Amino acid sequence: MILNEAHNSRLTVHPGSTKMYNDLEQFNWWHGMKRDISNFVSKCLICQQIKAEHQIPSGLLQSIMIPEWKWERITMDFVSGLPLPLGKKDAIWVIVDRLKSAHFVSVRTEIRDSPHDFGRNCKRL
């Protein structure tokens, strides 16, 4: 019960056996405590899956292509689900020019307005 609570606590989030031992020994101690903790952690499926040696190695870092001109490469996303204010716009349209800046436009989430808003807002920016 103590081991399960210490290991699955929302505050510790599956600590390894060393950290779990150091945390528990401040307030608890019993004969064979270190062995019990080590056995408990070794049987935890989540801990075994997230161990570094079980992860696929990441590839080499790739450099990001730097555009030559403003607005040559842009990315867009929507932040939606915002409370509906008096202006009836309940989302933020995020437009990022990868060379220069980011723009934030308040919009309605109705998809039919997006092409019109895109043309109107790109002319302003």
TrEMBL record:
<dbReference type="Pfam" id="PF17921">
    <property type="entry name" value="Integrase_H2C2"/>
</dbReference>
<protein>
    <submittedName>
        <fullName>Integrase</fullName>
    </submittedName>
</protein>
<feature type="domain" description="Integrase zinc-binding">
    <location>
        <begin position="2"/>
        <end position="52"/>
    </location>
</feature>
<dbReference type="InterPro" id="IPR041588">
    <property type="entry name" value="Integrase_H2C2"/>
</dbReference>
